[in-house]
């Protein structure tokens, strides 16, 4: 990137990505201003003061913002926000933190997106790279912001979990290895309820790739296959599949994962994977394909897949009380994630569900609910859609407004060998700060029983 002199960078939103961008911008010689329509957290204010960065909260002063040369917008602010529309009319570039940060590192970039599985896949790839002794950093939607990691830029590889909102704000960003775990309807409220706009957003991860880059994706996902047919991808395709034999990429045969990359074969029994379930076989395929591309020793790949036990809030076993297993899947913020969770349940389940609905279609869960769920506990400000969707599937539906109350109901209903599963299928912002807060409150309530 050319020397910017004292160009003016305005950062909208002082969350993790906003503060990281402000600090990186300051280091790179920008004149930086941070503006947040809400209240800025105390520790963030301290950091901004310490680095002598100007900021405002509870307002967006247009005069300060419209004078920007470049705007970094927090992923939480929609493109339809009046201020953003105004900026675009004035032809002021509005980009994401990922786009801002990537020119300031020479490290290899591995980008992971998808409706589900991206956090586990990101954490798993990072785990394998670290196991191989590489200087890997996991960032983006996981850990610290990418911009903050790039300030000291000590990594040889960045493994980046990327949301569709982050990809919406890219212009030239290009990961050398891109991974698309799957595409199912999610966040449709941000895409004018148009699934095609959401699909195109996810494919932003490959839009700048060249034939010397790689694209790893789920070949069992019809949505992905259809898009690739109509919009050819420039990079080298390395699909993975549980159903079909794959020449270059990964497939399943006789309960063995078989991966072929550049005539190099890797074979591993699925029984040896620490994480169970078909969706985790796919996550392991994606991670092992990356490891093969990077020529990591096969023994190292095997060991890392055998000892990786998952991420917090994703099908996390909390406690067994009176032979009832309590499971925290707070990270399930859409229907497809909850589908995987219910599918993984091996015994009768009390299901805690609800929150901010993002235009969910619950019909794909009906068969699993009939088979596995004996009671539903609604945990949200407005539960009417859930009650209408599942009223005929189970006899027992209760409504609650607090996690403590939800867990106490579950405790009373549960019998020996049951599961109590928190898998909300919704965003958390009505009753909680975020899905982590929701998951931690669940774990605390379980421990207090």
TrEMBL record:
**Superkingdom of the organism of origin:** Bacteria
Q: EC no.? A: 6.3.2.9
**What pathway or pathways are given for this protein in its record?**
Cell wall biogenesis; peptidoglycan biosynthesis
Positions with a binding annotation for ATP: 114-120
Q: Which residues form the Mur ligase central domain?
A: 112-291
This enzyme catalyses: UDP-N-acetyl-alpha-D-muramoyl-L-alanine + D-glutamate + ATP = UDP-N-acetyl-alpha-D-muramoyl-L-alanyl-D-glutamate + ADP + phosphate + H(+)
Presence of keyword Cell cycle: yes
Keywords, in A-Z order: ATP-binding, Cell cycle, Cell division, Cell shape, Cell wall biogenesis/degradation, Cytoplasm, Ligase, Nucleotide-binding, Peptidoglycan synthesis
Location of the Mur ligase C-terminal domain: 313-426
Q: Name one GO cellular component term.
A: cytoplasm
Q: Which GO terms describe its molecular function?
A: ATP binding; UDP-N-acetylmuramoylalanine-D-glutamate ligase activity
Recorded hits in Pfam families, A to Z, give:
Mur_ligase_C, Mur_ligase_M, MurD_N
Top-level enzyme category: ligase
What is the protein's major site of localization?
cytoplasm
Mind telling me which InterPro entries this protein's record contains? Answer: Mur-like_cat_sf, Mur_ligase_C, Mur_ligase_C_dom_sf, Mur_ligase_cen, MurD
GO biological process terms, semicolon-separated: cell division; cell wall organization; peptidoglycan biosynthetic process; regulation of cell shape
- What does the UniProt entry say about where the protein is found? Cytoplasm
Similarity comment: Belongs to the MurCDEF family.
Q: Which HAMAP family match?
A: MurD
Q: What does this protein do?
A: Cell wall formation. Catalyzes the addition of glutamate to the nucleotide precursor UDP-N-acetylmuramoyl-L-alanine (UMA).
Query: Mind telling me which PANTHER family this protein's record contains?
Result: UDP-N-ACETYLMURAMOYLALANINE--D-GLUTAMATE LIGASE
Name-wise, this protein is UDP-N-acetylmuramoylalanine--D-glutamate ligase
Q: Which gene encodes it?
A: murD
